[in-house]
Every structure is written in structure tokens, then in C-alpha cells.
Amino acid sequence: MRKFLILFSCIFLISCNFQNALSGKELIPKNYERLKEKAREKLSRVKVIVLYDRITDGKLFNREYGDIIKLLKETKADFIFLSFERAKPLPLSPDESYGHFTTPQLKYFAKLGLTYKQFEEGIKKIKEEIPDIIICGGILPQILFSRERDPVTLEIFDRDQTWKMALNPQKWGIPVSKEELQSRIGIREGKGRVKNPKEHLSTFYPDITNSQYQKLLIDWAKKQIDCGVDALWFDMLLGQVNILKKLLLRQGLTEKEIYNHPAIKESYEAMVKVLKEIREYGYKKYNKYIYLGMWSTIADIPYQMPELDFIYASPMTREEILNLKIDEERWDEEFSKIRRRFGKDIPIYVYISWGHTTKTQLGTFSQKLSKEKQRKYIELVDNFCKERRVNYIYPLHGGFMGIDAKILSYGKYPLYDSLAPEFDTYETIKILARKKAEGKPLLRTKATLDVVDLREKDYKTRLLILSLQGIVNRDNPKLYVLWESKDKFGNPSQEWLKYYKSKDWIYFKEISVIEAIKKYKDRIKGFVVYDPDFKHSINIATTMAGLKDAIIAHPHFIRPLKKLGLKMVEDLRGRWKDKYQAYKWQLINLFPECNKNFIAVLPVEDPRTHKFRYYMVRPIRDYVIMNKICALDLIPHKNFPRDIQLLSEYYKKINPYGIVLGYPFSGVLERPYVEFASKHKLKVLLAHTTSVNFSVHSKIPAKKIYTQNHVKRVNLKNKIYIAFCMSDLGLNTMQDRHYGAWDDQKRGSIPVSWWLDAIVIDFCPGIVQYYYETKTENDFFYGAHVAGRIRPSDFPDLEEYLRKGKPYLKRCDLNTVAFSNHGKYDEYVFKKYSKILDNCIGFFYGWMPEWEFGEDKNLLVFEDKVWIVTSVGAEKDVKKTVKKISSFIQKHRQRPLFMTLLVVLGNYPDFKFLKEVKENIEKLYPGQIEWVRGDELILLATQFVRKYRKSFR
Fold this sequence. Notes:
Oligomer: single chain
Number of strands: 35
């Protein structure tokens, strides 16, 4: 077993002050905390961990890196545990020429994959295919070979030198000699107790307080970090404390006396020092946070706990494995103990441990259980751990089954392999891992949001806080704002906080504007002053804010910000004579450093009067700044040729299929805005006056695959079928709860179909989850566009747009799509949508008849897919809407008749309005009307077309 010694009884806590060891001199700069926070947030999202000991032993198992990567992808692994293990001196490469290893030894190590070069190459190949996977290396600190080599300095240590590094209890006056202790340790080599351990043992137990050994241990870790590991697993790093404690217990010391003993204190302090220096190395050399983990026995020690990122435990016994029965009480106590010492959100990983012989967990598991029982045990432990928010490490590959193992992988290897026919547990592991990957992260870590109320605040304050929000939320969501809304059923900014809290995703508390600036001033590098007399400088300041981590400031704020210790990074007053000069300067000087997957069009003036309007603050700026997106205000309309020319220069430099984010000054410009972007192979995501907090919404840890109950069967009659279709904008309607329509208590009483652009799952997955969770049987989501708005006839590569968008439709379970081609009847477009989006049952086309090509093309068929053209656009007034519906019905006497009634959310309709329209139409056409969902309407129309195909054509 890897646990060399087991702590005896329960340990009562005593207070010991180890500030020098545990806090000590600050090794790591302050911005390290931000790096740590981001890294730990990623670790909290880990769902699937697999044991693969080692990723480099492919020659031994005839397994290429491509095969390993395939296994990792099939299991959807987030974390590779023990991808490499340093238990002995290892070559740098299979062909090194430093003289420490003989040629046969080099060949042997190369075959086993035990060289650092092979490990580095393995990490590189895996990361190329799965860049976000966490790769964990391993170190056995309890083993010091009598002939060692430092893998960093290449210094060689002979037997005399390593013996000096060996643990000697007499160093602290404990009456056990070095020879006696090391002789006992020799039992692990199978030699029993030897008389002269210095000369006859190949390994010693090292002394972690020895400075030379500390450096050697740290260099073992450094070398794996140089190879590219993200995490390090230490086996018996606490072993020296446990050994010395046992010796002191035999001397009759009490628990309190033991933990006040210099031998224990110094050993523990040395361990903490080693961990801190390893962290410092990862940060200083690679700007990387290295995850560190140890055995759960660390939680028994009554000192201040070291900073660890995960704890691994192996509470299972051989009897539990044999009987397929978990001692729940003992396991629960183990997990509770860890959480008491490290906090409730510390990641706990459980795996099957192994050792020298088969008298271990893995030995019992592999040698005593049948294939069927192995599968059953894996499933049993996995389910038990999931219930307790503990991650079970799937035994994919590796682990030494014991020198006396009889059942070997592929009949010849004493290393466990789940694909080996002798065990055949891989399919079970794959099924369990995939199921876990589709679920929630086990840790459910919460973000703590500071909430600033910006309602009724002036635009100067809003710009200041929005820019602070964008910078602060870049790593993790921290700052949230309350904003006005036109929602008649409450304030959405507040409602989303309540919902997120109810899902256990966040905590939140309110703070003032000044408190927010003071709290987060160390995260910003100063402020940019814009020119109040030249509002386009607000957009330049927005771009600078993202690139320079500087908040946006009105000149009135210069003095108070300087008093807070902030410096002026840029002063934009009087810099440019007009917007063309300003945006040309930005194109040359700032745009090259900006995010090329986006561009933000944010109006800052009325193009006719050149006056600033209050609503032009556009709260999407936080998201723009967070993602270092370039912001500008240029109008893609024929009346503004200079704007078109300059905007085209920007658009040509954006990555194809990138996103134009924002909304033009006026709705009149909306279609030209979309058309111009489409011609440059860009998509549009509309974000108007209430698109607020998306730097938070985009980081909510919600699920990103959603389902809805589709209608499967319909019964076609000679009726008038009408579907209410709610439609308008993009991020605004998501944030503003469809302008309050979703919160109407009467929702669900009438079949209603709701517009949803599937691309919003990248911007607000939690909001989308809320809509799917709260929809009724009468609510149906249909796809708005495919994934980002375009004008299809203007888009240069429509096929690729559709292929890229199709997975979004699947993730949102959208089987119908609606869009407008801005009045152009283009059969090429209809055919491409119908053919490529084969997962769709049909399509809705057009905004309103008066905006498209009239009422003569009510029903179209392309590639055997039905297209229903929008029949009527609802007015704000019930009577006018009823009159339009009636007029359409009177003009189209054929039955059945299929109608879409487009309801513009921007008119702020409620269900009282819908109900009155419904009741009035039913009075005019008693017994003739059926109100249906969008999918029902498509299925009914499809049934009609197929039944009367010849006459229809």
C-alpha cells in the first residue's frame, strides 16, 4: 500500500503558530491571486477524471498517442491523474549522453516511456487535441535512490551523498538510530532488515528537512512542470511526520507533546516550504498556477493546513472490494474530516491504490473479482462518490497489480488496463464517464457577486462602473449591476440574481459605487478620460479599457480617482476633429491588439443632430471590455459613404463568422446593419438598451444542452390553424424576460411560440436554462436565424454558416428555424436551409407581409421541407390586429389554412392582449379556429402538402 504508516487514533486539535512556515515571506506577487482564482474555478468544473499511469508507455502496450487521445475523448476526460510518475532517477531522453545511464538502461526506460522527453512530447500531443484537459504528474518523495541525479542541474549524487540525505531520528534526540530506521525501511525492497543499510539498500527514506534533499525534491517537480504538467500528485509527502510521530508515541509522549516536538514541527514546515517553492516556480517561469494534491491523511494534522488544490483519498478496504459493499459511515467520516480542514468545496478524488504485492486494493480488485464484479464495483463506487460530491477516478490504465499477480493485462503485463480482455471494464467506464460529463460539476462552486445599483445614476457613473465590471469579471464573475427595464412585471436584473442564487450558483451582496472602486482598484491600471464634447471618444475609451485594464472616466472624476491612488492612463480630450479621424487612429493603433472574433457597433450620437442620447450608454460595454473587443460608431448606410468605407476596413480584418455585437442608432438602420455585416461574412447579435450584465451571464455555470417536448403527431382537419409567434431582438429579450411577457401569470394558457437565437447559449446559458425550466406545454422555442443573424442572400458562404450553426440548434433542441431575407425571394437560400438543416422539420419565413413579398406566397416547399411565410404582423391595438387577421382569412378561402401571427415583443404585448385577439377571432369564425404551437403548425402544413402534393404543386 502507498500509505506507509497509518496515524493511530483521533487527533485532538491544538493551536500551533507556524506563521513563518505557512505564511512566511511573500514569495508570489499579488496578481498571482487572480491567476489562482481563475485556475481553481476551472478545477471546480472538472467532471471526469481518469487514471492513466503512464501516458508514455505506448511502446509497451502497442498504443500510439492517437489511441490514448481517442480514449480520453471517448470518456470526455477533463483530468488525467498520474500521467507520469517519478519514483527513480530517469533519463532526460532515450538518447541522452551524460553517462549516468548505460545504453541498455536507456533502451529499457524508453520502452517503458520513462524519459522526460517522451513525457513532454506526450503532453504536447494530447494538448494539441484536448487543450483544456488538466494533466497531472506524480512524485514519490519517500523514495531516495542510493545513486541519484538531479534532472534539472544533472548533478549526480553517490551513495555517500544520498546517505547524508537519509532520515535520522537522532537528529532530534529520538533514540532510534539512522541505521535502525533505514533498515526497517528496507523491508519495502523485500530484503527484510539488513545490517548495513547504507551499503546494501538501493533506496533510503529521505529527510525532508535536509536542504540538499529539498532542492532535489523541488527539482523533480520543476522538471515535470518544464514538461508541461498542470498538476502534481505527491504520494507520501507527509510520510516523515507520520514515521517520527510513531516513534515518539513509542516513547510515551502525548499527542500534544508530539505536535509540539521539534522533529514534527520542522518536518511539517519543510513540507510546506517545498510546496510553496514549487508554486513559485510555476508562476515565475510560466505564469502558470500548478495544482498540488496530497493524501487525505494531511487532514489529521492539527496544524494550519498548507495550500492545496485537491485531496486524494482511498478509504476502501480489501474486504469492501471483495464484498462489493461500501462502509458508508467510515467513508463519510473521511470526507467530512477533509472538508472540515480544507473547506466544503475542496475537490476530493478517490481512486484504487496499489503497492508492491497483490495485498492491496488494486491487487484485490484485479485478481479476486470477476470482470462482471469489477464493472459492478466501479459503478457502485462512482455512484456513491457522486452523491457526496466526490470525484471517483476511473481506472482507465495503469497501476501495479503486484509482483505476485497471476492475472495480467494481455497475459503479460502486471499493469492494470481496462481494455485488456482479462478485465474488460472500459465500456462501463466510458458509459459512466459520459453520463457524468453531461451532468453538473460535482463541486457547484458559487461566485460571490458585489451588486452595484446603477438605476437613476447618470451616464458618467454608468460608464465608469460598466468599465470596471468588464475588467473585474474577466477571470471570474465578481461585479453585477442593477439597471432599469421596461419589464412590467419586475426588474430583470434583480430577478436573475434571485434565480442564480436559487440554483446555488452565486451569493450576492450590495455595495456602493465608491466601495466597488475601492475594492477592485488593485485590478485596474488606471483610467482613461474621454472628451464630453466628442462622444466618439467614449468608444475609443471603451476599446482602451479592454486593452489597458483602465476604467472610463469623465473629466469630473479625475480628481477623486487620483485621490484613490489611480493614475490617468490616457486623456482623449481634444485629440480628434471628427469620428473618421478618431476611428482611423483606432484602426491603426488599437485594433491590431483587439479580439478579432468580435466587433462592437455602439452608437454614441444621433447621426443627424450629433447629440448624445442617454440610452446610448449601451450596457453591453461590460462584455465588450471583458473580451477586449473594439468599439465604434459607423453607419453602414448609403447616405454615409465615408462610414461605409472605414467600417469596411474594420470588417475585413475580423475573423470570418465573427460577431458584430450591438445595435444601430435607429431601427431604420437595422437591416442595412445586418446586410453590411453579412457581405463581410460576419454574423450579428443584437444588443440594445437593456443588454446588461453579460460579463456575468456568460460565465454562469449552467448546462448548455437543453430539451423541449416536441409534438410528434397531429390530426389534420379543415381548420384555420394560427400560431402566435413572439419575436424581437437578441440579448435584450433574453435579459429582459421577453420584456415581461415571460413573467405574465397567464403564460401557458395559450399556445405561444418564442423566438430564440441559439447562439445566446454562449452569452447567457443560465438565462436560457431558466426559460427551458419554466416553459409550459403551451410554450415552444423556434430558432431565430440559425446561430447569429445574417441576411442569407448577402452571405458569401451560406453553406458553412449553416453547418457551423447546426450544432447550436441541436444543443437547444430547436427543430424549426425562422428568419427574414429582407424581402428577397431567393430559392437558392430556401434550398440550402432545407438541405443542410436536415434536423429541422420546417421553417418560418419573413418578418411581416408588408416587409417581405406579400400574401401570395403563404406556403412554400423546398427539398421536401415546408416553409410557412408570415401571414400577419400584430399591431399594438387589438381591433387593428383582429382586422388584419380577418382580412387575411377572407383572402385565403382554402382550408386548411396555416397562419403565423407575428407578435413584436418591442410592442410590449401581454397575455391579456393575446387572449382578446384570440376571443375576437373565434367570435368571427366560430368552430373554425385552432391555436397551435409552431411545431404543430409545421407538422400540420407538412401533412397537408404530402396529402395534396400534386394539386399543391
